[in-house]
Write a structure and sequence with these properties.
Layout lengths: L2 E4 L20 H24 L4 E3 L17 H4 L1 H14 L2 E4 L12 H20 L7 E5 L7 H14 L2 H4 L2 E4 L7 H11 L3 E4 H6 L8 H9 L10 E4 L17 H11 L5 E4 L5 H11 L4 H16 L3 H10 L8 H12 L5 H12 L8 H15 L5 H14 L3 H4 L7
Parallel strand pairs: 1-2, 1-8, 2-3, 3-4, 4-5, 5-6, 6-7, 7-8
Helix pairs in contact: 1-3, 5-7, 12-13, 12-14, 13-14, 15-16, 15-17, 16-17
Length: about 425
């Protein structure tokens, strides 16, 4: 069972994807961005390998305008060496990748121009995975699309358009239930017509349920039966509702107790779990660390990245976690993450924020210029007087982190949470 995250990693320097406006998308600009993005993807893959993350979704923005403007550029030939190198790392580590086209890729649209662009987009996604040399277990996830006033006709159009796709696309395509239009029963019924694998999304199902009120585990079992050996293990999406946002909005982090309760029901099943959550790799590492005993060293590495975010929210939990990790013979992963979550739920108090900022400032105070020192103190004073927010102070500290190449802070979650 693999656990993974989507597209970007927090606290990982050199992993940012670039794009550009269409009006600036000339050949030289696009090729430069593509090269940068492939280097970023390589950084992400190496990070995943280092921390045992075996499931990852590549951003569709890897090749900007990949199904339109960039489609006429020979990027796959120019950068085949990079693709081959990255693909070799993926295969050697037994990592599984996927891609997820965006909301404008609608195969069942009544507008033929939309369908044409959607097919081009699916071909682009297929090309990326092909260039990496990855097999058919590396998938492209798609929603059924829109209803357009008649669900039955919309399903018929989807099936008809699916049958016209190239074999390369069909070998990778899987379909997923959505949170508004097509529930999991709709998707299973549609997919069964041509034997398309189905991805179950638990949050979408809770918001847009079928009339058949099976629990998540039953739906997952039914979806698993749609996957063949060539498709690889069944894949599901797991997320949690944000308490303060619209239905379907993903939570800031995966609540570990809830996840472990869900995981235990799947424990004997060969199913891959893609987490859809705001803090991306942070929740992936949390869940992996809580279901596998990687040793106290892994928890200490994670704590080093969280520590200043926790200090600025809960000095009490900061001290409690430090004490918790002193026992080198233990592996208190769940307890540590429970305290981290409790801290992140607390309101940010100015005094705590100033205290944490001063701790981070300690990395620079002996090396900065007088003007940099004055800039920090001015930002801190504005925070104390209520004239600026904590982000103003963090921006100063982040710029110093980059300037002085403080690796410890560059990998910290302090600037992300």
């Amino acid at each position: 069972m693999k656990i993974g995250y989507a597209c970007i990693a927090l606290g990982l320097p050199g992993s940012e994807m670039k794009s550009c406006l269409q009006k600036n998308a000339n050949e030289d600009r696009l090729l430069s961005i593509i090269e940068h993005n492939l280097d970023s993807l390589n950084t992400l893959i190496e990070y995943n390998i280092q921390y045992g993350i075996k499931l990852f979704r590549i951003s569709s923005d890897l090749i900007p305008f990949g199904s339109s403007i960039a489609n006429i550029l020979p990027w796959q030939n120019l950068y085949q060496e990079k693709f081959t190198s990255i693909g070799s790392k993926i295969k050697k580590s037994r990592m599984r990748l996927s891609m997820h086209p965006g909301q404008y890729t609608v195969l069942n649209s009544p507008d033929e121009s939309v369908v044409e662009r959607s097919i081009q987009d699916l071909e682009y996604h297929t090309k990326v995975l092909d260039c990496l040399g990855l097999g058919s277990e590396h998938k492209i996830i798609l929603h059924l699309g829109g209803i357009y006033g008649n669900k039955g006709k919309a399903i018929e159009r989807f099936v008809s358009r699916y049958r016209e796709l190239s074999n390369g696309v069909k070998n990778r395509l899987v379909v997923e239930n959505d949170d508004r239009l097509f529930n999991i029963e709709d998707v299973l019924n549609t997919a069964s017509i041509d034997g398309i694998p189905v991805v179950f999304d638990n949050l979408h199902n809770s918001i847009n349920p079928s009339e058949k009120l099976y629990d998540d585990i039953e739906w997952i079992k039914m979806c698993s039966e749609t996957w063949t050996k060539e498709d690889g293990p069944p894949k599901i999406h797991f997320s949690q509702q944000h308490p303060d946002k619209r239905p379907g909005a993903h939570s800031d982090f995966i609540a570990i107790d809830n996840f472990l309760e869900f995981y235990q029901q799947l424990h004997e099943t060969d199913i891959d779990i893609m987490l859809e959550v705001k803090d991306k790799n942070l929740s992936a590492l949390k869940c992996i660390n809580c279901v596998t005993n990687s040793g106290i060293g892994e928890l200490e590495t994670e704590w080093a990245r969280y520590k200043y975010s926790i200090l600025e929210r809960s000095p009490e939990n900061y001290n409690a976690i430090r004490k918790l990790l002193k026992d080198k013979s233990s592996y208190p992963a769940q307890v540590m993450y429970q305290m981290i979550e409790a801290s992140l739920r607390k309101p940010l108090l100015i005094g705590n924020a100033i205290n944490a900022a001063n701790h981070v400032w300690g990395y620079f105070k002996s090396k900065v210029s007088e003007s940099e020192k004055n800039r920090f103190q001015k930002a801190l004073l504005k925070l104390e007087m209520g004239e600026a927010g904590v982000q103003t102070v963090k921006n100063v500290l982040l710029s110093l982190t980059h300037k002085y190449k403080e690796d410890y802070l560059q990998k910290s979650y302090y600037f992300e949470l």
